[in-house]
Amino acid sequence: MQITQHTYRDVSQRQRDTLERLASERDIWVSTAHPDHGPHQVPLWFLWDGQAVWMCTGANSATARNAREEPRVRLALPDTADVVLLKGEAECFPAQKVPTEAADAFTAKFGWDPREGEGPFTYLRVVPKTVLAWRDEPELRGRVIMREGAWLA
């Protein structure tokens, strides 16, 4: 195990770092739950539009079904040494009804347009209500950087 030293970041720096990662990263873990079947977690490609996370999955996938039944979701960027967790509610859009701006931006980022793909696809839009960010134990205190949809910095 390699131990790395991290400089403590204040809330403003954590917010800047989080926004940078949301703008630049490709994958995000999506956790949903079904009242009868329990939790479900998958990685999906995502797009950050400055206010919301956009993802796309098969319209009949467990993720889409769960989000339609229980919209509360958790999202996590895939780095356990630089944790970013988001909580919010998923809004589901059939691929043919997704706002054009979001679908075009998703296509530009990934080179794939679900509106033209085989089978039905659903876009999930999550506006974060809570965001937590920390690196290692010293940053556990004060890890909440967004509460009730408002950045704390």
TrEMBL record:
Record GO terms (molecular function): coenzyme F420 binding; oxidoreductase activity, acting on the CH-CH group of donors
Stretches assigned to the Pyridoxamine 5'-phosphate oxidase N-terminal domain: 20-134
Record bears the keyword Oxidoreductase: yes
InterPro entries xrefs: F420H2_bilvrd_red/Heme_oxyg, Pyridox_Oxase_N, Split_barrel_FMN-bd
Keyword entries, A-Z: Oxidoreductase
SUPFAM superfamilies: FMN-binding split barrel
Transmembrane domains' residue ranges: none
A GO-annotated cellular component: cytosol
PANTHER family registered for this protein in UniProt: HEME OXYGENASE HI_0854-RELATED (PTHR35176:SF6)
The protein, known as: Pyridoxamine 5'-phosphate oxidase
Organism per entry: Streptomyces alboniger
